[in-house]
Design brief:
- This protein is largely without helices or strands.
- It contains no helices and two strands.
- The model has no long low-confidence stretch (mean pLDDT 85).
Length: 62
């Protein structure tokens, strides 16, 4: 979640981080809207990790 200015309503954006991405590697966060509207008042206000998907495994003996 991010805000465009202090006191603004938080907006949601989803970011996909590939498996194996290094913990200290940069991640691009796409901010929707016009680039001209993005200022130094923009703040990331929360991060919510999603549960990773686990590939299904075939049953033993198949």
């Amino acid at each position: 979640m991010f805000t465009r200015a202090g006191g603004a309503r938080p907006e949601k954006v989803s970011v996909r981080v590939p498996a194996g991405h290094p913990a200290d590697g940069a991640v691009t966060v796409p901010i929707p809207g016009r680039a001209a509207d993005i200022t130094d008042r923009l703040r990331l206000v929360s991060l919510t990790p999603a549960t990773p998907s686990v590939p299904s495994r075939p049953a033993p003996g198949r």
